[in-house]
Design brief:
2 copies of one chain form a homodimer.
Chain A: H1 5-8, H2 15-20, E1 35-39, H3 43-56, E2 60-63, E3 79-83, E4 90-94, E5 99-102, H4 108-116, E6 120-121, H5 134-140, H6 147-150, E7 157-163, E8 169-173, H7 185-189, E9 198-205, E10 207-208, E11 214-220, H8 223-234, E12 242-247, H9 248-255, E13 268-274, H10 280-293, E14 298-301, H11 305-316, H12 318-325, E15 328-330, E16 333-334, H13 340-354, E17 358-359, E18 362-363, E19 368-369, E20 372-374, H14 380-399, H15 418-437
Parallel strand pairs in A: 1-3, 2-3
Antiparallel strand pairs in A: 4-5, 5-9, 6-10, 7-8, 7-9, 11-13, 11-14, 12-13, 15-20, 16-19, 17-20, 18-19
Amino acid sequence: MTLPSSLTARAVTEPEVKATYAVDESVGVAAPDHFEVVRARDLDDVVEVLTYAHHTGTPVVPQGARSGLAGGAVAVEGGIVLSLERLRSLLDVDPVECLAVVSPGMVTADVKAAAAAQGLFYPPDPASSAFCTIGGNVATNAGGLCCVKYGVTADYVRGLEVVLAGGEVMRTGRRTAKGVAGLDLTGLFVGSEGTLGVVTEATLRLLPAPDPALTVLATFATLGEASEAILRLRRDRHRPSLLELLDATSIAAVQSIADFGFPAGCAAALIVQSDRPGHTAEDVQRYAAVLTDAGATEVAVADDAQESDALLAGRRALHHGLVAKGTHFIEDLCVPVGDLTRLIAAGHEISARTGVEISMSGHGGDGNLHPSFFYDPADEASRHRAEEAFGDLVKVALSMGGTITGEHGVGSLKARWLPQEVGCASLERQRSLKALFDPRGILNPGRVYWS
Amino acid sequence: MTLPSSLTARAVTEPEVKATYAVDESVGVAAPDHFEVVRARDLDDVVEVLTYAHHTGTPVVPQGARSGLAGGAVAVEGGIVLSLERLRSLLDVDPVECLAVVSPGMVTADVKAAAAAQGLFYPPDPASSAFCTIGGNVATNAGGLCCVKYGVTADYVRGLEVVLAGGEVMRTGRRTAKGVAGLDLTGLFVGSEGTLGVVTEATLRLLPAPDPALTVLATFATLGEASEAILRLRRDRHRPSLLELLDATSIAAVQSIADFGFPAGCAAALIVQSDRPGHTAEDVQRYAAVLTDAGATEVAVADDAQESDALLAGRRALHHGLVAKGTHFIEDLCVPVGDLTRLIAAGHEISARTGVEISMSGHGGDGNLHPSFFYDPADEASRHRAEEAFGDLVKVALSMGGTITGEHGVGSLKARWLPQEVGCASLERQRSLKALFDPRGILNPGRVYWS
């Protein structure tokens, strides 16, 4: 494939630079041999790429910061990687309407900072928020550490500008607080993983700023007690703004890179926060009592922002700890919170049976865990066992009415389980919707449910 | 049209009873001469109707409580009215997952009560909540008095069971707190006004219960000052849970049915509430100070629930007051809140120019007003003038980036403005989506955007 001359000015040609656009943060999706990279500078560039690609049948992979974990932004053979990272304008922040209008390449943390500068709050907080972009967050309907209280990206997207296959520009949604005219195309695009169109502008709903969060850290002798504590905390009238779970394997992994203060031998830890204006100290004391009552062996309550950060540091270090521990698949199952204990028990059973080491941690308050399956990358059989073990745990989650992906997306890695989760009637309509918006199948081909 | 024998047992044959199913609460949509009414008793009945209708090309109008104001549930000639009012089961309330699973005919107030019995809260609160049903709320993405703080029905629908044209049953969404597997078909069905399928079950997200609300009532000498007060209240860190606006015409209409305590000659009133746990008294005092500072002539602050109800009573009586005042179209425009003053001024200008009396009231805190246009039903020219005046105000709202419908739906009455609001690219895809889900066009034909 040769780019038309009008696009070559925006193409990345330096081989070492180009190679960085081949993959995202996922493990196990191979980079292709031949692809082009175009870094769009404006809406017109996006229109031109999607017009050209539609007419020539060229695959297009939209890319933000390439921080995705499901292989949804890996380049495809003979295709164009369309990077939106240079479209990073803050177009508006309106403190009366409580919204922000942003370009897709804007880094999530920068959107949060722009809101904060007006006393407002953009809640979505994926672990990658320091470098991931809003376009990618919209594409995957990203979640993060705040969802237990604040929900996910979809809850904050009021409207979009998208470029469709063929180059037509469409606006969805609205700027107003309410509006029910016609079908909700905004919701259809949020979480569509780049398969229906390319987002070039997002209108985001903002909230008033909460207080700086205070943290409680509790450790437990059993995972069952930690799970029970989660259920009790969810019944609290003032829902924690963060409710994270670490199992023994995860704790050992973070302790191996630095001492985050977890006592030796504990089976689980919960990290809980309140950001409720005027009540953070009261809330964390109440949460601490609930945690103690549920059987916590040690409970530490932060008095100030510095202590809060220190108590959360172990959770923030989890990704690095697991990477240091070894090569692994990171997964993203979500089950009803009441089934969390059973999901964790199933993970232990699968680990014992298969010999695959599995860590179980993540957004416990949502029932959304990121089990990690460790393997030896030099040993094909070891990798295969890890994949099998993962498949076994997926089946358990689905049998509970859970989902194969709480927040990372289906991408390339989970497409095979989608039919079982959504069922034939839904899958057939999803395929038809894809064909309606992208009749030539150029947008992120092979992803989600069209592999 | 003759119903198949298997459906006649569920048909309404008594002419007086049948006639009540011909129309909803809208003004200006004619009832047809010939139609059948089937009251479904279970999922199988809905499947049977949609199978029969699809194969015979018979129009189907899904109906809840017929409280809609946009003509979205009026029977159509030669069609079947499919009433869901008998499917009114509370299937589950889960206090840990914070959700309820309900049948579509369940009355909204009953869902709210079922949640409250578990210390939980289902926020959507359309003015008709004492008799409207969840199925209708989902179909129109209903709003109400709480939206300024809590949003609309779409924000609380986690999953649906729907019957598609042809009778296939499809599940959308999920029971889990998070989930991003595949396209969001739930959002597509919410607000689709019965044109894509028939909802037979809804999984609803619940919140912890707030405190009983306290109310402030403020009156103003000018509408401009009341609008300015709305903008200031929206900047408050603790957003009111209710922020309603009445203009002089609306105040006179409610005062004509009883004395609700509005002083003579005031140009506008704002009713403001807080339901923030532990802080309602503090919030309403702060709101009162903001209202006074913005120029309110009188401010009354409730001390308890009884006073609160009394101060809200005038707003609750608005619908009756306007009906008593005379025949009118009730509209549902929503503009950016910052444009509210200009929208109201435009209404006054149109009224002065056309001689049509227009009241301007509604959910001021959202920028969502329900202007009512009064006319003499015996005078065709008067009615025509009211329609023209309405069209003029719609154009103003659209020019502000507003919408033709904040919460009532497009229905039969507003379809002609939809193309201008959403644009060609969106309209074309909406039409294609309709064709995808309902290729024979049997579901609520002539509604929304296919008239």
